[in-house]
Amino acid sequence: MKSADYDVEFVYPLPDETEKADRALMWYGPKNFGAGEPIILLKTKEFDLFKNLDAKLLISIIIIVCLSVVCLWLYIEKRKYSVEQVSKPLKVQIESDEENVIGMLKEAGGSMFQSVITKKCEFSKSKTSELLKSMEERGIIKRKKKGREKLVVLIAERE
């Protein structure tokens, strides 16, 4: 075996300097060692991942793993949310918009200009027009032209 396969386990008397790079133990000045001294006890190296890894590297790996888990969790949650949004029926939104228009018409005495509905509901002109067209086709309202504007009249009572 090579000397690199050994670690110093015990030294007596303690050296003045230890150089790990050169694998050297040094005593300076005149020394009188006793019989059987110096004592150097070597042991074979054992590979230990946690002893050999730098603490900063280990912490970095743990942080990267934790961040990866969080990112994966966020990705899965985002996909769930987007799938839920796509699967929501559009009809529910249209019905609530229709209910808003019907409620406004009832409060206004049964009729109102289309431009006022657009402003109060904060719809675009095209959305208001499409919604009222759909309601007119189903016999809920009637639109009458008054000059350059259209008057929307409620003709069917809904519960």
Short overview:
By secondary structure, this protein is of the alpha+beta class. The protein has helices at residues 49-52, 55-87, 90-107, 114-121, 125-137, and strands spanning 6-12, 17-19, 24-26, 39-44, 111-113, 141-146, 149-154. The chain folds into three domains: 3-46, no CATH class; 50-87; 90-154, Winged helix-like DNA-binding domain superfamily/Winged helix DNA-binding domain (Arc Repressor Mutant, subunit A).
Q: How are the elements arranged and paired?
A:
Layout: E1 6-12, E2 17-19, E3 24-26, E4 39-44, H1 49-52, H2 55-87, H3 90-107, E5 111-113, H4 114-121, H5 125-137, E6 141-146, E7 149-154
Antiparallel strand pairs: 1-4, 2-3, 5-7, 6-7
**In order across it, which strands form the biggest sheet?**
5-7-6
User: How many structural domains are formed by the residues?
Assistant: 3
Uncertain segments are: none
Q: What is the CA-atom radius of gyration, in angstroms?
A: 42 Å
Structure in words:
The protein has 3 domains: 3-46, no CATH class; 50-87; 90-154, Winged helix-like DNA-binding domain superfamily/Winged helix DNA-binding domain (Arc Repressor Mutant, subunit A). The chain has 5 helices and 7 strands. The chain has helices at 49-52, 55-87, 90-107, 114-121, 125-137, and strands at 6-12, 17-19, 24-26, 39-44, 111-113, 141-146, 149-154. 48% of the residues lie in helices and 21% in strands. A hairpin with a 2-residue loop joins strand 6 and strand 7. The protein has 159 residues and is of the alpha+beta class. The chain is rod-shaped, with a radius of gyration of 42 Å. The model has no long low-confidence stretch (mean pLDDT 83).
